[in-house]
Amino acid sequence: xxxxxxxxxxxxxxxxxxxxxxxxxxxxxxxxxxxxxxxxxxxxxxxxxxxxxxxxxxxxxxxxxxxxxxxxxxxxxxxxxxxxxxxxxxxxxxxxxxxxxxxxxxxxxxxxxxxxxxxxxxxxxxxxxxxxxxxxxxxxxxxxxxxxxxxxxxxxxxxxxxxxxxxxxxxxxxxxxxxxxxxxxxxxxxxxxxxxxxxxxxxxxxxxxxxxxxxxxxxxxxxxxxxxxxxxxxxxxxxxxxxxxxxxxxxxxxxxxxxxxxxxxxxxxxxxxxxxxxxxxxxxxxxxxxxxxxxxxxxxxxxxxxxxxxxxxxxxxxxxxxxxxxxxxxxxxxxxxxxxxxxxxxxxxxxxxxxxxxxxxxxxxxxxxxxxxxxxxxxxxxxxxxxxxxxxxxxxxxxxxxxxxxxxxxxxxxxxxxxxxxxxxxxxxxxxxxxxxxxxxxxxxxxxxxxxxxxxxxxxxxxxxxxxxxxxxxxxxxxxxxxxxxxxxxxxxxxxxxxxxx
Length: 502
Hints:
502 residues, alpha/beta, GMP Synthetase, Chain A, domain 3, nine-stranded mixed β-sheet, 15 helices, globular
């Protein structure tokens, strides 16, 4: 909280016409902390916050940290699911919500009621109760392969993660938050505030609104998922440029090198990729200099997740946990002080992923001779076709190389012949109509670049790719849709909705 005292009159958190100074934000945090303490929240107790993307969501998080509480945040959006499971699993003493939620037995208070009651509290500082060894947050995974798991991170780990952030001393670019505050964006906001910068919170991502905010608050830095970047490139309001945008960090899922190259050409700003996960924080980064080098003769770097950040160890290992040399493909293991303490109340899972201080990420990849990491896929996303291991990433990249395909996501579905088969979901590019011909041509690219076994046996055109709360494609939902389409069969699902390979 000391960082907020450095410039009490400076702008801290904005949302449209409303802007809180650092001094005002600090007063709100103390008021919220006092009220939460009266409601039974203290060191080690659980607080669940189910809200939208608002400045007050950030203030509640800070108040919880002051008290040393164990915070679980859920930002409600169309991708939210398994809420009842999360609210039971995190064991909250209090649930703060601005929407209807299942009754799980815990004490509840409406978000607006909390804010109104907090306004009546004194704004005098409280002693900070948090200790480094305490659990600061239980953040839930997207649950794309099953029920979400709670990732428990200590205050010490959160401090290390914040310390990796580049400092802007005093006034600098405004960080515009457009993704879920319950996930990476919330941490980015706090990191930016800690460095003395201003944050602007958008409740939802809309390309024209984002462009208007960039023009109004220039210079602007932001964090985007690849799907958001694609929307900017394809929207008429932002396809030719975004005045005021200075730098972009991106991550959460694989990005198509061709579209990244397009973004670098169109926007001409600094791009930085971060590869990480709730369990480990940031693992590696592809720096702005790496992006420039990619355009200057090292194009393969655009397919890389960069090099490990300082303080992080990275290893590629085989199925028996043995180190593999550069160029060999295996599972990514990592070790750092930013790692999680473990999965919340799941020691059985800890024994699977935590070994001798190392975390098994579940990602498949390799490192080159220069230490750059290249990710192939998630182990859980691998499709086994007639005994062959098929990784989704290369198939998706090949499909998306067709000019009429804006984005491709592939999943596995059961097959009575080959065990599993590849089902592709395609999003048509702007100005292109979905057709059987385009689907066939895109599949031919897969065969030409990879092999026949990688070729989708079913292609389904969609008008959007469903996303999980993390911003990644929701493969659990897509697997269910693929299974449903398989049951319907060719007669109902072919044509412009679904093309099936003969």
